[in-house]
Predict the 3D structure of the following.
Amino acid sequence: MSDPNRDDPEQALIAAIDAGRCVAFVGAGLSFPAVGGWRDLLLEVAKQSRDPSIAAVVAELIDEGTDNVSLEAAAQLLEDAEPDGKLGELVATTIEALCDRAGAKQDVVRQRVEYLRRIPLSAIVTTNFDRYLPGELPGPAVYRRILRAHERGTPRYGSPSQHAQCPVVCLHGSLAAPRSITMTRRAYRKRLHADPGYRRFLGTLFSTHTVIFIGFSFTDAYVNELRSEVLTLFGHDDEASSVVPLPTAFTVLPNVTDARRRFLERHEGLRVVSYDTPEGDHGAFDRLLARLAKHTSPLARLARAAQGRRILWLDPAPENNRYVTEEVRGIDLVSTVDQALVRLATCGYDLVITHLGHGASPPHASTAEALLEQMQRPRHGAPVVVFGSHATEHADANKRRSLRAGASAYTYSWDALFREIERILSPGSVSA
């Protein structure tokens, strides 16, 4: 079967995010407007070093080449000049100063992070150590939380104020823990070869999730080595095959030519989402992130599921749900059982949502039970989801009562409610 998104990488990326188990791997490009590049950072750090001669040596070493080997070597010289592991503290101080001097450029980075946070990701992994994307340091607890997320299900839905915050892993350290900052040749080598958990985590992540590289230039030899292991595992670069294999990851890159795109897809397992940078303007990158956030948000997903369907939503405070109706067409809000029954008698609905209502404890009937009883005479046919709205104290009892009364499902969280709506409205699903 042909892939309908084959010629549209952006739509293919949106479909991959919708499918779940996507991880963003974020590099320095995301925060470049405020922090700048690694070269400039090293030169700034060198100026603050207690060794007055180191600045000239670092500048000379960096000018010898622009590859990461030269940059890592320069960082190593800086560490050698700073006894007692003080390089991390010096780097943290320098980065904070660079951010402070960036002024309004920080708003660009903060907006990018906000877009990224709206995308329903399983995790964000970053090699950055700046103030814009704080997170946890690598370790068993966060490794388990990400790699075993299927045990509890990864929240993907909710209201704008309640959208799930996926875990963020700061692979190379954090400003909150300056001594954790990793940027020297020796530190990278130690992290990759003397920390088996780190290597195994990334290898497993690359193997089991769809990775989206954002602001990452693939000049990191250590990450490339791990990716190469995964590509070999999957037989991606099998010379005997005449078929271009499916990509194992996506990457967002500027100004990619057709020739480079074909190479990255065929030999690096990367589906390229490219954008143009006229005169160095990366505004198209920001607009791309905005589109990804918009089209993969919980409401966008719900709108697609509800397209062409009609939903009746009973809630005594309908204004609480207007953020949904503003984005999702086909939802009618009512505030009483009588109003709901009038609508049901005159309109056909594919789904009814009702709040639990008063009388949650026997012997009084809840609003949901009253509506369900009336819907049986005559039977209106539409499946009913009872939404307890965070009523966790009596959740088990409320669920039993709702199901006995004829409800298709009972939920008490936005995440579960959105999942139920999508399940019921999906073609071919069992709705009652």
Summary: The first helix runs from residue 9 to 19. The chain is about 45% helix and 10% strand. Residues 9-296 form one domain. The mean pLDDT is 85.
